[in-house]
Amino acid sequence: MTARAQLILANRAFLDHEAPRWADSPSTASSGGLLAAVRPVIAPWDGHSGTTWIGVGMGRFDREWVDPRGYEILETPRGPLRHRRLFFGSATWQGHYGEVANSFTWPLFHLVRVDLPRATPYYPEPQPPSAAGWQSFVVVNRAFAEAACEEDGAQSCWVHDYQLALVPAMLREREFRGPIGFFLHIPFPSLAVIRPYLSGEVRQRLAEIVRGMLGADLAGFQTPGDAERFAEAACELAGARPAAGGLEVDGRLVRVGAYPVGIDPEEVLAAARRAKPVTRVRAARELGLPVVVGLERGDFTKGIPERLRAIAEAYRQGKRFAYIGIASPTREGVEVYGALEAAIEREAARAREAAYWVGCPFTQVRAAVGWDDVVALQRDADVVFTSSLADGMNLVPLQAAIAQSLRPTEERAVVLAGVDAGVTKVYGGDGRDGLRAVDPLDQQSLLEGLTEGLEGRPARISDRFIALVRERDARSWGERFLDDLEGTC
Ligand code: F6P
């Protein structure tokens, strides 16, 4: 790992922090896939080298402001971290986060099939942002770029994800002194698929996002497919040209590559060793029932209603198992999430009724669950059922593989994952190693996956899958990206 001073820019701050006053309010570790992947990459801050993290300190205030105390040194399990939060007024935040990041980019980038909004009525059509919304996105991105340039000692800057897609080009304009990396944690869409949405305005905003990303020296993606689709869009929308190792833009080389994220296996293992089984799992065991778990953020990309429909059908066919579904609240207040909750409720009610007639426990709740309970569920499940419509990676199957490594091979779970999730592209979804791809929009495929999974077919989580997850962990992901980034200068 590089011992140089390195800057990480991410929309989420390292800590979730409800109140503006840093030291006087309670704070909790921020959650989410990005944090899980990047946390293990942090190099301890030693006063002149190590990691500085800049993130948003929640945008709920009536004016923009900069924390008067500037930087703080946080104690983290990886050592001290230099941390800075930027604060934005609620109108700016709504435009940046509500309108652009989550009502436009997020649904557009997860559009792996053009018919998603039609096939799943709760999936929102990507909304081109208003002029004011776009301006807020620019304001937030600019604030990050300026904060980064104030960092005299920083030798490289690693910008994360779609919320900050304009930052790389802004850093370049401001002549940031070190190499600039950008990593997209979510999928990059195919122009062929989203073409029906590429009207004037959508096209223009997408082109600006792509141009922003092209400011980087190294643009990283979850899978080779994402990298290829980005290259194609960069050529069509932003005048880039294919070049050896990446793209040529304005006479310089932007390296483009696939860097699939990983997890911190030791963190999962430690929780798997200490966590007690959750009550509902114990109750299912007493009934002699296998346990199927569905764990995710309550997001419209996760395919939850379709999965619940398949669960209901399995109960109707007389299959006996306990289902524990937990969707953690996410992006509350972002309007396009409104229809999802009703769709989950409707399908959950049907599944609950079907479960009742075969005398099986069924739970689908909307709740934030503690880390130990998440890992306990992943460790004790017989089928880990994810079925995202699209996903940059989806860390649940990787965490489950590690958590289940404590069980003998013949007792381990089968993991189901959406065919368009990064995890099945990277690890393969033929089921041989216990990871089986399902088509989240095809009830037959979901039902077959579940049925086979309950029988331990085609195979339970293998030692090979566990070893691969260990090998491709978050540390090695970060090191590979940062080494390649350093190699760009
Ligand atoms: O992988 C987790 C993730 O989907 C990241 O891609 C993204 O940056 C993050 O969640 C955003 O989540 P939130 O809107 O909850 O901060």
TrEMBL record:
Alphabetical list of InterPro entries matching this protein: Glyco_trans_20 (IPR001830)
Source species, domain of life: Bacteria
UniProt record similarity statement: Belongs to the glycosyltransferase 20 family.
Protein name per its UniProtKB record: Trehalose-6-phosphate synthase
Organism: Tepidiforma flava
Taxonomic classification: Bacteria, Bacillati, Chloroflexota, Tepidiformia, Tepidiformales
